[in-house]
From TrEMBL:
N-acetyltransferase domain sequence ranges: 3-155
Gene3D superfamilies named among the record's database cross-references: 3.40.630.30
Region annotated Disordered, chain positions: 151-185
Keyword Transferase: yes
Protein name: Ribosomal-protein-alanine N-acetyltransferase
CDD domains given in the database record: NAT_SF
Length: 185
């Protein structure tokens, strides 16, 4: 499967809303919430599109992710990957794009919150160098401890990726991460 990582467009919202329900059930954001988030100040949303090998026809959005930058720190708002595509590296590609974007913005670090029961996501974040800061109560559930807060420090803000961290290229035959959406899109 060839995956194209690109900016999320308004035309993608129907598919992203379906994925939200698939992944988060009753906790899913509504179409209206997603549309509002897409245009919010300081937000950057991307999709992972599975493109047919013959490159004929449109690809299917199999994942999406969002980032919020407040001028000092970036916060990962969400990373969602369709259940059929989980374990295929789509989540890692989206995460890599968010970290690269955070560096480009000059963020000092990247924050996120993840359910304590989501072992695969926790492992992915730790592989990228995120460290657990603590726990948060009543984030995903109304009772008990259920989310880890995690942080990845970006020394010296922005710049190139850490030389000690193997990062996927942002443009390859399999993955393309445009710097920005084309003006006529």
């Amino acid at each position: 499967m060839t995956v194209l990582v690109r900016p999320l467009r308004a035309a993608d919202l129907d598919r992203v809303a379906v994925l939200e329900v698939e992944l988060f059930g009753r906790s899913a954001w509504s179409y209206g919430m997603l549309a509002e988030e897409l245009g919010a100040l300081g937000r950057w949303y991307i999709t992972a599109e599975a493109v047919p090998e013959d490159r004929v026809g449109a690809g299917d959005v199999v994942g999406y992710a969002g980032l919020w930058f407040d001028g000092e720190l970036s916060q990962i708002m969400t990373i969602g990957v369709s259940t059929a595509s989980q374990g295929s590296g789509v989540g890692s590609r989206l995460l890599e794009a968010l970290v690269v974007r955070s560096r480009e913005l000059g963020a000092q670090g990247v924050l996120l919150e993840v359910a304590v029961t989501n072992g695969p996501a926790i492992a992915m974040y730790e592989k990228f160098g995120f460290e657990r800061l603590g726990v948060r109560k009543r984030y995903y559930q109304p009772e008990d401890v259920d989310a880890y807060t995690m942080r990845l420090d970006l020394p010296h803000g922005g710049g190139a990726p850490d030389p000690g961290h193997e990062s996927a290229p942002t443009t390859t035959a399999d993955v393309t991460t445009p710097d920005r959406e084309p003006e006529n899109a």
